[in-house]
Amino acid sequence: MKPTAAPHIQPFAQRLTGQRKHPAPKRTRVSLPPGYDGCDRAYGEPGQCVPWRFPTGVADRCAWLRAHGFDPLPVHGRDRHRLDTNRDGIACGPGDNTAR
């Protein structure tokens, strides 16, 4: 077995104690208006972006959502697009009549 060299430690690292000199800044909660990023967060899962405004000329919003890879979406708040017409908590689900 070959002997191995001891690890080289940079001089600045020898002074580290693992404790912070200054406390981390306190986080502040920011209140953003609904639709600030163009997404309606009342629909879908985290990371999904149902548009706040659908493109001009879209007659069937659920068909547009399906064409863009969205499956039936859970509704987490106000159903402002009226995509859950049977009020089962799922937008564009079976039994919804949403061609508007």
TrEMBL record:
Q: Which domain of life is it from?
A: Bacteria
Which portions of the sequence form the region Disordered? 1-35, 73-100
Locate the compositionally biased regions of type Basic residues: 18-29
How is this protein named in the record?
A: Excalibur calcium-binding domain-containing protein
